[in-house]
Amino acid sequence: MIAGALTLIMATAANAGNYPFEGTWDCDGSEVKLTSETYSFGQQPTLTISEVVEISDTARGVMFTDGYRIAFFDITSSSMQWHSPASGDTFDCKKTAEAAPETPAPQEQQIAQDAPPAPEEPREQNSALRYPFQGEWTCADSATGEALTDLSLTENDVNIAFMGTRISYEKVSPIGRNGTAFNVVLRDGQMGGIYELSGDHFLLNFSGLSLSCER
Length: 215
Fold this sequence. Notes:
- Helices cover 0% and strands 51% of the residues.
- The chain is mostly beta strands.
- The protein has two domains: 6-112, Lipocalin; 135-214, Lipocalin.
- It is elongated.
- 27% of the residues are buried.
- Residues 1-17, 108-113 and 120-126 have low confidence and may be disordered.
């Protein structure tokens, strides 16, 4: 097939095994679940897949109905790399379970034989800071967009406005290799995950909430 051409095919969209990335994966400590129709990352809302791009025999690009996109590289039956072109995050993933069979009605899917856009370079962070997520943030519900709280993140603790409390960090651990994702354990035992960190935005999983935070 000529590179760049789009081929429309008729397929049974959600039968397990359609795509090599289907299954449940441990991606540097975060659980990722993939079927041929849906994607979930940790506690974030489940996204619906709109298009799958065949980059090579062992690589796929995935676009979602909200415009977000990711890519999977070096896919085998037991491992792959997860990559976000938007943030530059790259995680090593190990398969923990196969995808469960599903039987929805057939639908038309689009598979492209073209490479996805080149990943954007992560924004330069302030090297004087101990952690690149330090600062003042306003966080909203990722699903509804409703503003929920202000966060003040320092090198030692977090002040959560809606809880009216300041909690020290017990441990801060980077996820992946790009400095744009972190696991944060608080002294009171609560845990949070910071993902796709840039100079003015990150995604936060905390206490069962999925938040989108802006500086």
